[in-house]
Amino acid sequence: MPHRVAVLALDGLLPFELGIPHRIFGRSLEPAPGNKGAKLYEVVTCSVRPPGPVRTDSDYAILVEHGPEALATADTVVIPASYELGPVFEEGRLTEELAAALALIRPGTRMVSICTGSYVLAAAGYLDGRPATTHWSSADHFQRLFPQVRVDPDVLFIDDGDVLTSAGVAAGIDLCLHLVRRDHGAAVANEIARRTVVPPYRDGGQAQYIHRLVPEPQFATTTAARAWALGRLDRPIQLRDMARQESMSVRTFTRRFREEVGASPGQWLTQQRVERARHLLETSDLSIDQVARDAGFGTATSLRQHLQAALGVPPTVYRRTFRASADTP
Fold first, then answer.
1. Which of 52, 77, 159, 266 counts the highest number of beta carbons within 10 A?
2. Nearest to 277, CA basis, from 258, 257, 301, 297
3. What pLDDT does residue 329 have?
4. Residue 216: which residues within 8 A CB-CB, separation 6 or more?
5. What is the dihedral of CA 262, 276, 160, 265, to 10 degrees?
6. Which residues are bridge partners to 54 per DSSP?
7. The pLDDT value given to residue 328
8. H/E element, 241
9. Per-residue pLDDT tens for 231-244?
10. Between 264 and 31, whose confidence is greater?
């Protein structure tokens, strides 16, 4: 049976966010010639009430055909943001109606929030003592309301195993693609990203999207330097060489890079090399030593250390897991 995803539609929801799980999970197929493979996920939309209309933040309502009982059959529950969370947003507590609906969720179900849907997870206790994120503009309020949650306002999403949270709106796409990648490997995730016309993996975090009161003129960017670096990840890359691509001093380049990407050049390079290594481990038969060289880590030991730090597993375990997932979803 396909993995069942239940999307909880709350009054005041954002239609764009509601559609993200359907677009990403609903279009994910088993690898097969001509993209005729079977669906990997079954996606249903449900309400906290019996089937009927649910208000949106736009000038129309949507008709939801499933009530809260759909939550009891879900393998993954996704909670998009809503502008009518009431006591959840104001006091950090669930309404009786919402609490009753969430009580139907089976233990061990994977819980996912998009944007300020994290308020629902926090009010329900799913985030107690755990790392989480939300829209950057709500991060301070979220932390004050839920001091037991370890809030990181800088990232696009956080994967804490069975509970995952994403930043604002479009970061829900990043998180859903990450889940497809985690469940079925990079090939499946990359294919749905291509069909959705979005990057399979976005650089940096929320810092690049936060409005600054006195923004500096953006006549110069670091785009060319990033493109130059991506074309030579298998070779040594010095910070001064990246700065030279933009005709900037190292100091100016480093500051501008962090403003645009939300990470230092060194952190970004490591992220890109980890992603290159993941792709090679999943899609090629190269030896671990060759993967390490092609990804720019030089040695298998260095690759092992970086993959362990980023993903929690060594290269051989990662390859065994995701090659098996890609071959037999």
1. 77
2. 297
3. 39
4. 259
5. -20
6. 62
7. 44
8. helix 239-245
9. 999 999 999 999 99
10. 264
For residue 106, give the H/E element and its range. Answer: none
How buried is 169 (Cβ within 10 angstroms: 0-12 exposed, 13-18 middle, 19+ buried)?
middle
The predicted structure's pLDDT at residue 70 = 97
How far CA 107 is from CA of 78, 111, 254, in Å, comes to 15, 10, 46
Closest CA to 64 of 6, 113, 114: 6
Structure-token pair, residue 79: 């909670």
Distance (Å, whole) CA 310 – CA 69: 37
What element of type H or E holds 119?
A: helix 118-123
Residue 34's pLDDT band, with cuts at 50, 70 and 90, is low
- Residues 245-296: pLDDT tens digits? 999 999 999 988 887 777 899 999 998 999 899 889 988 999 999 999 999 9
Beta strands 110-113 and 61-64 are unpaired
Residue 237's pLDDT is 94
H helix and E strand count, the chain = 14, 10
**Sheet harboring 76-79: ordered strands across?**
41-46, 3-8, 76-79, 110-113, 163-166, 157-159
Residue 82 sits at φ, ψ, to 5 deg, of -145, 145
Residues 6+ apart with CB under 8 A from 90: none
Listed in sequence order, the residues at least 6 apart from 125 whose beta carbon sits closer than 8 Å to its beta carbon are: none
Rounded Cα distance between 240 and 250, Å, is 6
Q: Tell me the C-alpha distance between 301 and 298, whole Å.
A: 9
Tokens of 255: 């500051």
**pTM of this prediction?**
0.70
